[in-house]
Amino acid sequence: MRGLLLVCALVLATGSTMAGNLDILGIRSAEYLMELSRNAVTDCADGVTYNPAGLVFLDDGIHLNFSGHYIGKDYTIAGTFLGSSEETEVTTTKATPFIPNFYAVYKTGSIAAFGGFTVPAGGGSVDYRDGLFVMPLLQTVLVQAQYGPTHIAVLNEGSMEGSSYYYRGIAGMAYAFTDKFSGAVSGRYTSGHRNYKGEGSFTVIDITTMLPVNTTSAELDVNRSASGISGVISVNYMPSGQINMAARYETATALDFEATANAVSSWDALMPYMANGAKQRRDLPAVAAIGVEMMVNDKLRLGGSANYYFVEASDQGSDDGIEDAYKDGWEANISARYQFNDAFAGALGYSYSNYGGCDSTYTDLEYNLDAGLLSGGVNWQATKVIDFTLAGGTTFFREGEGTGIYTGESFDKKVFFLAVGANASF
Asked: In 257-287, which positions are buried (b, 16+ CB within 10 angstroms) versus exposed (e)?
C-alpha cells in the first residue's frame, strides 16, 4: 500500500496550463496568444524568447515588448472518496490574474543585443476546497500502522492548495552573417517556486464493524524552490523577402528543489522529499523548435511551427514514482495574420500539445492532458512608435482516466487565456 501511495506522486504540482509542455508555459507574449506560431518571428521584440536570431532583422534602434496574461481555470476530478460508494467531483476554479513578460532589444547594423524577463513555466495555483481523493488514502497508511490493517481513514473535511511559478532572466546577442542568415546565443537564469498547503480531518473506521474508533488530522505546508542556468542557440534563414525560417535549441534547466516546511507533517514519512531541507530534482526539459513564416501577399501572413520537448532525457527525480512514465512531448502550431489597413491587423491560431503523459502520470494534483488551443486577437498601431495587442484563447482538453490507486477517477480541464500587450520602437 505504501508503495502505491508513493506512486500517487504527491509531486503536488499544478502542471502546465497549456501551450507548452511538462511545466513549461508556452504563452510568453500577447503576440503569441494572438497567432500561436512565433518561432520564425522577425518583427517584434518577443523574438527574444521565440526567435533570438531573427532580432537582427528589426530596424536599428530600441525595441520594447510588454504583456500581461490572465488565465482562467476550471479543473475537475470525478471519483469516489474512500469509505463512500457515491461518486462526487472536486473542482478548482482559482484563476491566475496576472503573468508579466518583458523584452528589450537594441539593434545596430548587423548586431542585436537583447534581454528580458519572463515566466517560462508553472503560471498558477489550484485550490481544492473539498479536499482530494488521495488524502484519505494517505492518512489510511498512517492509521493502519497505528491501529492495524482493518482500519481506514474517512475524510470529514479538508482542502489542498498548490502553486507553481518560475521566473527567468534572459540576456544574449544576435549577429547577421549575411543579409539572409543570422545566429544568436543567449543565457538564462531560472528561479522556480512550488508551494503546497493542505489540511484534513478524518474519522478512523474499523471496517470489520464499520464503527468509528477515533479521529485524526493531518497538515501540509511546504515551500520548495530551486534555481538553474541554461542556454539557447538560434539560427534564422530568410531565403526571400516572402519566406523566413528559423530554428532554436534550448538546453535543459537543472533544478534541484529544496523544501522548507512551515509545519510538521505526519505525511513526511510517505513523502520524504517534502520534509524540511529535503531535495528533489525536477528539471525543465531541453527544447528543439522550428518555425516558418510566409507572406502570401502584402496583407496575409501564414505561419507554422513545432516544438519537441526532451522530457525523457531530463532529470525528474526518482522518488515520486512517475518519472519514468512520461514520454517526450511535442507541440504543433499554425497561424494566419491579416493586415486590414495601416492601423489594424487580426490573427487566428491553433496549437495542439502532446505532453507525453498517460494514465500512469495522472494524479490528483498533476494531470497533464493533451489538448488543443484555439486563439485570436487584434493589433492596433496607435502611433508610429507604439502599438497594442489584445488576444484571447480557449482550450480543448482530452479527458484522462486514472489507474492504480486512481482507478475510477476521471480528470478534465477547461482553461481560458486573455492577454494584453504593448510594443514600442524608437
From this structure: bebebeeebebbebbebbeeebebbbbbbbb
Residue 388 C-alpha from the chain's centroid: 25
Tell me how far apart the alpha carbons of residues 108 and 40 are, in angstroms, rounded to a whole number.
Answer: 20
Question: End-to-end distance of the chain based on CA atoms, in angstroms?
Answer: 64
Q: What is the pTM of this model?
A: 0.92
The DSSP output letter for 398 is P
145, 153 Cβ separation under 8 angstroms: no
State how far the Cα of 40 lies from the Cα of 247, in Å rounded to an integer: 8
The domain locations on the chain are 2-425
At the top level of CATH, the class of 2-425 is mainly beta
Q: What backbone torsions phi and psi does residue 240 show, to the nearest 5 degrees?
A: -155, 175
Report the candidate in 16, 33, 223, 253 with the shortest Cα–Cα distance to residue 124: 16
> Measured over all CA atoms, what is the biggest interatomic distance in the chain, rounded to whole angstroms?
83
Please spell the DSSP secondary structure of 123-142, one letter per residue. EEEEEETT--THHHHHHHHH
Q: For the CA atoms of 262, 138, 255, 51, what is the dihedral angle to 10 degrees? A: -110
pLDDT over threshold 70, residue 19: no
Q: How does pLDDT run across 251-277, given as a tens digit for each residue?
A: 999 999 999 999 888 888 888 888 899
